[in-house]
Amino acid sequence: MLGQMMQQPLLISTLIVHAERHHPEREIVSRRVEGDIHRTTYKELASRSRRMAKALARLGVKAGDRVATLAWNGYRHMELYYAVSGSGAVLHTVNPRLHPDQIVYIADHAEDQVLFFDLTFLPLVAAVAGRTKTVRHWVAMSDRAHVPAEAAAKIPGLLFYEDLVAAEDDRYDWPSFDENSASSLCYTSGTTGNPKGVLYSHRSTLLHTFAAALPDALNCSANDVILPVVPMFHVNAWGLPYVACLTGAKMVYPGAALDGKSLYELFENEQVTVSAGVPTVWQGLLAYVQANGLKFSSMRRTVIGGSACPPAMLRTFGDEFDVHVLHAWGMTEMSPLGTVCSFKPAHLKQTQEQRYEVMAKQGRAVFGVDMKIVDEAGQELAFGGEASGDLLVSGPWIVTEYFKGEGGNPLVTDEAGRGWFPTGDVAKIDADGYMQITDRSKDVIKSGGEWIGSIDLENIAMAHPAVAMAACIAAPHPKWDERPLLVVVKKPGAEVTREELLAFFDGKIAKWWTPDDVVFVDAIPLGATGKMQKNKLREQFKDHKLPTA
Ligand code: AMP
Q1: Which spans in 239-325 are helix H?
Q2: CATH class of domain segment(s) 445-540
Q3: In b/e form, how buried is each residue of 323-347, taking b as 16+ CB within 10 angstroms?
Q4: Ligand 1 centroid, distance to 425 Cα (angstroms)
Q5: Is 281 a residue whose pLDDT tops 50?
């Protein structure tokens, strides 16, 4: 017997329709790359999204076509979240910090048709515009007056965002279609080979949005003022631009200015109540606030994830600023939310000291995500044990395969036939269900919340005539959490210096990917299958002091 309830597909457009109808005057404030603070409302944002949806159709964008962005957090980017996905196309948020060669690779792989970009990225776009295969239109996310004619001339057929919006009216009905249709695409760097695409659907995004907004998850409401520092190109700013419309919260977007002073000004001027970002960003903000003897007058909680939040940071936020840290864990493959470290009733009776210990864990699964840890034989380990295991997850906003089937089937199937995604993280789960990452089996390096592909770096080093073997590992860094350390075995009789090797990276990768240091060793430990045992190297160099510039 079937239920007798309305059949309405879960579509991203319903979020903006809701926000326009129920929170029309609520503000969206953005620090623009043009230099000013821009203010708009959900009503205006919804109207401009509809106009942009019409403009996309006029540019020939059809359902399922990929439309890319190279952009900071701002209202135009949010308009594209709704205009592109809402009209049935797929929003591909590109990480502008990638090397131009990688941007060309993923734009080609995604078969992007149109690419929208913030003015900051004009030189980058000028460098890649002649090299991509499928991009038909390049759109500067500004008006004509702000784009220098000289720079514009370097991009053939350049279009301007404000021209496109101005040319349309907002009479547009969001189309209805299968909720399983693709809505957005995000590339993650795998440990081997090229970045892989994770293709979200309208359904997965809506379910993730419901769960993310819950009190024990990101805890957002209409009364909040949310400032996502996490970029809109990093797993859709952890879903916050969608949570915004679901709740009717005021949104504050920081644009390109992510330094402590600029962020603090926005926090205070806009009376931000909740924020979200990787630990590195908060280091800069805390340093600024502490150095200037400042306090947060409105911010009461912040979500920290992407890398483990250092326990000292939890305490500084709590003890000095009365800001509660919500430690969260997730992945691009998980839309991204998996766990949030919010308390259960028993914790409320504990001392602050005991609570800080809980808060250092990555937290408990949000409803919708099931997780388990398994041993090397794939046997599930019970919650509450001492052993760590490989962390597997399952749920309706977790990837089943990468875009275009890249890398084959990533899932592990259990005895009941259920698919589980192996996260690559190694974790413990306590008796209360709180998960703590103890290690990660992947060897990529996370600098300031951004991956650096160790294999790419090794491949370059190995191309040097004096290098016999090279391993790139993460070494602890006071500012960026981790930076690459290159471990090298020289060819017999060959000579090369640290400086010569580092100079060898120039022009081959994005500058910030260059290793911070090189150490020369006689041999690199190898495992049974001939793979370099980087865990052993990490252990060997865990106290290595990187040069600080
Ligand atoms: P990404 O897909 O770039 O978001 O990276 C996902 C990976 O980041 C996870 O598999 C973890 O290794 C790591 N990660 C994310 N959040 C945390 C956290 N709170 N603590 C430790 N590692 C984390």
Answers
A1: 240-247, 260-269, 279-291, 311-315, 321
A2: alpha beta
A3: bbbbbbbbbbbbbbbbbbbbbeeeb
A4: 8
A5: yes
Point out which residues pair with 437 in neighbouring strands: 427
Across 21-45, b (16+ Cβ under 10 Å) vs e yields eebeebbbbbbbbbeeeeebbbebb
Asked if omega into 345 is within 30° of 0 (cis), the reply is no
Higher pLDDT, 258 or 281: 258
* Average pLDDT of span 66-86: 98
CA 446 / ligand 1 centre spacing (Å) = 9
Report whether pLDDT(191) > 80: no
CB-count burial class (<10 Å; 0-12, 13-18, 19+) for 392: buried
* Domain residue ranges in the chain: 13-215+242-255, 445-540
Residue 119's nearest CA partner among 56, 81, 87, 162 is 162
* CB 341 less than 6 A from any atom of ligand 1: no
Closest CA to 121 of 284, 264, 255, 293: 255
Specify whether the CB–CB gap between 267 and 275 falls below 8 A.
Answer: yes
Sign of the dihedral through C-alpha 146, 151, 153, 155 = negative
3 state DSSP class of 306: coil
Query: Cα(515)–Cα(402) distance, rounded to whole angstroms?
Result: 29
Which pLDDT score, from 0 to 100, does residue 457 have?
Answer: 85
Query: Domain 13-215+242-255, what architecture?
Result: 3-Layer(aba) Sandwich (3.40)
Average pLDDT over residues 338-350: 97
- Residue 464 neighbours by CB distance under 10 Å: 18
Would the CB of 306 count as within 6 Å of ligand 1? Answer: yes
The DSSP line for 154-176 is TSTT-EEHHHHHHTS-S--PPP-
pTM: 0.87
For residue 514, how many other CB atoms are within 10 A of its CB? 19
Q: What confidence score (pLDDT) does residue 126 get?
A: 95
438 tagged catalytic: no
DSSP annotation of 255? B
Active site residue 420: no
Mean pLDDT rounded to a whole number for the chain: 93
Q: Tell me the average pLDDT across 333-338.
A: 98
d(CA 363, CA 338): 9
